[in-house]
Structures are given as C-alpha cells and as structure tokens.
Amino acid sequence: MTAGRTPGRDLEAFALKKKVLRLETLYDVSRSLTSAREEKALLEEILARAVPVLDAARGFAAAFEDAEGSGTVASLGLEPEPGPLAIASDPFVLDLARAKTSLARGRETVLGTGVESVAGVPLLAGGRVLGVLVVLDREARGGDAPSFDEEDRRFLVSLAGLVAPALEAARRLRTLAADIDRLREENRSLKGSLSVDEILVGDAPAMRRAKELVARAAASRVNVLVTGESGTGKELAARLLHAGSPRREGPFLALNCAAVPESLLESELFGIERGVATGVEARIGKFELASGGTMFLDEIGDTPLAIQAKLLRVLQEREIERIGGRAKVPVDVRVVSATHQDLPAEIRGGRFREDLFYRLRVVEIRMPALREHREDIPRLAGHFLGRIAARDGRRAPSLSRDAVKALVDYPFPGNVRELENLLEGAAALVSGDSIEAADLQFGIANEGRGGGDDLRMTSSDLRNVENAHIRRVLAQVKGNKSRAAKLLGVSRRTLYRKRI
Ligand SMILES: Nc1ncnc2c1ncn2[C@@H]1O[C@H](COP(=O)(O)OP(=O)(O)OP(=O)(O)O)[C@@H](O)[C@H]1O
Ligand SMILES: [Mg+2]
Questions:
Q1: Apex CA 266: angle with CA 265 and CA 270, to 5°?
Q2: Which of 62, 212, 267, 493 has the highest count of CB atoms within 10 angstroms of its CB?
C-alpha cells in the first residue's frame, strides 16, 4: 500500500476496476456471439473468460445432449478432463439444474474432489437446462473474501444469459446440418440405385423398347418428347431421363402446362420483374430455376399458341426474358416434354407450332398403353402390391388365378395408373392373404372378363368401350367428375378432355 492512500480508497478503486473488467467481458462475449460457432468453441470461450475474471483457479463448462449423458465439455485446469456423464450426475451440477439460477458455496465436493469454493450457473433456454458453467477455488486477491460472492453470481447469470441462446442456435444448426447431410446421402443413393429397369416395370416388347430409349436418351443432352395415353408412365419416364443424365445433380422442375391458367403460364415459365403491375413481387421463372438441370413441360399439347412462340424463342436462343425485364438471362436447360395428345394432328389443326414440335421432339419416346403389353399385368400387379405392403409395413397379399385373369382381361382405359389404384383398393379391403377376383372393384361389370373379345378390337371400338365405360362410371357416381376420375384412375382434366 502506498503512503497517502487509505486502504478504503484502494478497495473502492479495486472494486470499480473489477466492475469495469466484468462489463467489458460481457460486452466482448456478446460481440463475439454474433458469428455462428460450434458448441465446443462456445463453451471454451465462456470458460476462458469466466475463470480469470472471477479469479478462479479452475473450471468447466458442459452442454448436455440427452438423458443418457452424452454432450460437449470444456475444462480449464482439470486433469483429466471430466466427461459429460460425470458432470451431469455431479450433486452440485444437479443442484444448479434444480435451482435454475446461479449458486455459490464454500467447501464442497465437486466431481469427487474437495474444493475450497465453487460457483456455477445453469445455461437455460426456454426453461430447459442446456448445460452448466462452473468455476472452482477462488484465489483471494486484494483483500477479497476467499469465496465467490453475490456479485460473482450475478456476473455468471449475465454470462449464461448471453451464451445459452447461442448454444441453442449452435445445436439447432448442428442437427440441421446433420439432417441435410443425411438427406444428401439418401438422395445420392436413391439416384445411384435408380435403374430404369427397376422403376419402369415390364418386359413386353413394347415396354422394352420404351425403356431402352429412356436409358439411351437419358445419357444424351437432347430434348425428348414423351408421348402416350393417360397413366402410361410419361412422368415416370421424364424423371428417369433426368436421373440418368449427366445433369442428375442439377434441378428437375416440372410444370403442367394444362393446369396453369394462360395468364400465369408465362410468369411461371420465365419469371417476372418486380413492379410490372402494382403489388407484383419479383419471381424467378421455372426455366431459370432449372438451369443446369431439366425442365419438364407436362401436357405440352395444351400450351396456348402465344406461349408456344415464347418457348420456341427460348429453345432457339438459350436465354429467357422475364416479364417486364430488360436484360436477357442465359439458361442452360434440357427440356423434356410430355403429352397424351396427337401433336401432328394438333399441328394440322393449327393448334400447335410445327417448328416448336421439332425442337421439342429431337427424340420421341412413346409409352405403350397397357393393352399393348397385357403380358406385363401380372408383374406390374406384383410390383404395386409389394410397394403397397412395404409402405403399410405388412406382407404383400398374393393374387388368386382368377384375380390375375380378371386383371389381364380388363380393358384398363386408365392404363397403369388405373391398375395401381385398383390394387390399392383391393389391398385395403382384402381380409386374408390372397386377393380374389371378387375383391377387385372394377367400377362396373367387367366387360372383358371371360370373353377376351377386346383383344380383337380396333382402336375406334376401343374408344367406344372407353366412352361407354366412362359414361357408366359417371352414372354410378351421379355425374360427380372428381369421383369418376378417381374411380377411373385418371386426372379430372383428362376426364374433361374425353368430352363425353
Ligand atoms: N411401367 C410402369 N412401371 C411402374 N409403374 C408405372 C409404370 N407406368 C406407370 N406407372 C405408375 O402409374 C402411375 C401413373 O404414371 P405417370 O404419372 O408417370 O403417368 P402419365 O403418363 O404421366 O399420366 P397422365 O397422362 O395422366 O399425366 C404412377 O404412379 C406410376 O408410378
Ligand atoms: Mg403425367
């Protein structure tokens, strides 16, 4: 002590200095928390700050993971470093968790060792104890009491209040990162295991041809047009074309040109600049989003002529113009389109542009109607029953011989989708292990059954059968088109287009 100074004033100056140091520490911690950090780094930081500021000799901090006692630990001056389980089950730590506030004590046993003094604080978020911060053995300095006091406890509470939210955020970020990793991995393995043969079921010559074309065209970068009736697997083929292509890591975007009103189709495809009309937010179009990947234009035959002209320009110039935008944006997109329409007939009727047709159909893949590969019906049925059973976590029911025969004989106007829906219904209703013919709800008395006449039908006969079938289903559901579409296994729009 220097002459001229009273011990009282010295003490005052010391206390003031201490306060400033603590405030500075809290300020530094709060600043350093603005950047995301891992739990371990956070715990190390608060420990490294708390121990010297509180004149402690040692300390530890822990974040608990679950009830089993896993977690993250940081320690200072403790050899060996205590594990998370030892910390979580320590009586003083348990007291902290119970008290939900800071505690300070004199002589105590902590982690199985006697200490002269101890103070700690739980790290709380939303009332839950995420972890603890504990300092041990206060070193007496400047005439201070040799144990932690009220002020130390307050400092610990402030520090914990700053760090706990950051700790929770770090934990969320870690689970999120783990989720993303898992999904990426799943995605990769799904894509890796995606073979055309496993996804598109069927070995009949017509189906083999389609599958071979899908596999071959996938590898190239040309635009592909997929044609075929409703429910023949056009969308499935389009997805396989992307998944098997060198662009598989890029995005796959689908747009149903028949489902989007004409007034919105252009902005859906090419995007819109902000403020084109009052209240319009800028939106990126699907073409731009699909850059580096595949754009799937479903029901391309239903695209209005005005949009067809714009599509053609995009395909020719490989750049898009957003609505209301001045700059052109280059896009690198492979286009796969699909339609159930007869596009050459649409071209003759003046409803589809011929030049666009040739741009879209560098390669055409026609998906066969189910009646062209009836021999695949038993295998397709087995495929769907297996999938339904796996989804529901039970054993797949088998099909009786009569049921198989009934399926093979049925005309299936809704193609594979109708078959899938039929089996879904049968699997839901069947009580035993085997699906009988009677369990199959064809919707109407099954014309094809027994006769086999339909095999010799011409295509216009088929249309008549289809129309009669649709009319009867409609009558059965009292004209409710949504229900009829469901029963038939086709989309409502498809049903509307039949113009019955
Ligand atoms: N060969 C096949 N193997 C396995 N599943 C198939 C096959 N063909 C179609 N499917 C299934 O049938 C359903 C209909 O297929 P998808 O949606 O691809 O047909 P679509 O031709 O696009 O029909 P729509 O013209 O009505 O849009 C899907 O559930 C699909 O998984
Ligand atoms: Mg489709």
A1: 120
A2: 62
